[in-house]
Amino acid sequence: MPQSLQADSVATEEFGLLAGGGWAQAWSLWADSAQQVLAQADFVRLNTQCRPALGIPYAIDTTTTVDPATVRVDWHRAGATGSNTLLYQGGKWRFVPDAGSLADYRLGVDQLVQQRRAAGACH
Predict the structure, then answer these.
(1) What is the dihedral of CA 5, 19, 61, 69, to 10 degrees?
(2) Residue 3 has pLDDT above 90, yes or no
(3) Of 74, 81, 109, 120, which residue has the fewest beta carbons closer than 10 angstroms?
(4) How much is the mean pLDDT over the chain?
């Protein structure tokens, strides 16, 4: 039986990697369905070509068990807030980027980098 505390630990690891620039390692914690949206090399390229702000930690505010294999974490980072889901797959908790991020990833790296640069979101 999966333990939701382990899901919280995976979320903490994911957010630490994202805040620190560990793109390849962060992607490796994703759920299978998310990994199919964007390849690891493309996730690394995206965040290398248009680097998000680094060194700003994420803080998990609440962890909610949705069902035995699904946990939702609510977080904040500087002025941003959000929620992400973790799924228990293949004996491990796996991170799912939010729906907006997944939709952005479907645009492809080149288009997404162009959009983020135009919005001044690259550091």
Answers:
(1) -40
(2) no
(3) 120
(4) 96
Q: What angle do CA 111, 104, 9 make, to 5 degrees?
A: 135
Closest CA to 90 of 116, 111, 72, 69: 69
Structure confidence at residue 1 (pLDDT): 59
How many alpha carbons lie under 13 Å from residue 82 in its C-beta half-sphere? 15
Count of beta carbons in the 10 Å neighbourhood of residue 26: 23
What does pTM read for this prediction? Answer: 0.93
CA-closest candidate to residue 96, choices 30, 25, 39: 30
Most distant CA pair in the chain, distance = 46
Residue written as tokens 């919280």?
8
User: What count of other Cβ atoms lies within 10 Å of the Cβ of residue 86?
Assistant: 28
Give which of 43, 18, 50, 46 is closest to 120, Cα–Cα. Answer: 50
Provide mean pLDDT across the span 92-118: 97
The CA distance from 51 to 59, in Å, is: 20
